[in-house]
Specification:
The chain is α+β, with helices and mostly antiparallel strands and about 400 residues long. The protein has 11 helices and 16 strands. The longest helix is centred in the C-terminal third of the chain and has 28 residues. The chain starts with a helix and ends in a 13-residue tail after the last helix.
Length: about 400
Amino acid sequence: MRGSVRRPIALALLAAALAGAPGTVAAADAGPAAPRTPEGASAVLDGLKTYGQAVLHGTDGTVRQIPAGLYEMRVDGGGMLQTYGVGVTGDAQPQARFTEIGWNGTPLAGNGEAGRIRWVLEHSYPQLNDLAGLAKAAGASALTAESAAAGTQVAIWRLAEGVWVEAVDPEAEKLADYLQRAARRLSEPPASLAVDPGEVSGPLGTRIGPVTVRTGAQSVSVTPDAAAVAMGVRVVDARGLPVTSAVNGAKLFFEVPEGTPDGSAEVTLRGNTRVPVGRVFTSGVPAQVQIVAGSSESATVATATAKWPRLPAAQPADVAASGGAMTALGAPGAPGAPAGPSAQSASAPAADPDTSGERLAASGSSAATPVIASLAVGLVVLGGLVVLLLRKRPLEDGPGGPERSTDPE
């Protein structure tokens, strides 16, 4: 009985040891994905400020009345935004934090009507404050700020999601119909402030870059982080002159002194500008995406990073070639390798004591070697325990056990 129990225990011990194999360690070492590089403005949602009512008809026959209109946001660092919701069921919550982002990664990505939504925003309230003129274009008798906001929101929902939604106010409904019919496709607006690309790399002794500035601001400040300054890293233009401010289209480079340890440096750009109509803000919840309908002068920020990775040390050609041969199965000196003249000839370079250290380094040793060695020792110990457990089983089965010896000696 005891012997039959020991066999599953031994297998469990071996399985636990194999679970800690190097492949598992490597998977555990994988870190989280790098965060998205900040660009443009970030803001906190104040809530729905100017709105009317709409009726949403569900595909299951349900009918639900929902608010429809303009939200307001407070921009970090100063400024205000007016936005409409993209998702009809978004229900964006006040005090939620939003960041500026391109259409990619939002419900507008791949939506053929996204450009028409931008047209609606450019040709309706609040971009057009002449409500009498807007009402005349829509064939409505009159529009208030609330009915204009409701009609605009309804048109956006129809284009964004293809839903059956109607404004409760008849004049707002006329505006929604007009905007949906008249809308033309426009291109995606640029970021209020961005850098392209957000990360560059290169060897020491060169100007790493360029990073191109994209902004609607007249000028933005350029400030390297404290670590970069301490290392003597400079942000320069194409002529090598230091840069402390930049305009749209400017190209920035990172100049890293020779001998600087491996690392990275970050530069922050800040400016004030209006966030373009049609830019999108996300809280991380796709259904709550907001699209800009109006903006005051607002604080914007973007960052760019430079890296100068360590380059692998160059190896002599003969060392690199012999390193591969020394690790092959059956290579000279390996167990079972031939000891004939040809094997002695192939292993002749390894006999040189001055290069043995280099050949060992070329064989693939790395920082993972201690981990692998520890796992190997653990497997050997566990294997010994398994053997002892299995060999002791016949002695503990007792008289009449299935494996008791019948030899009189």
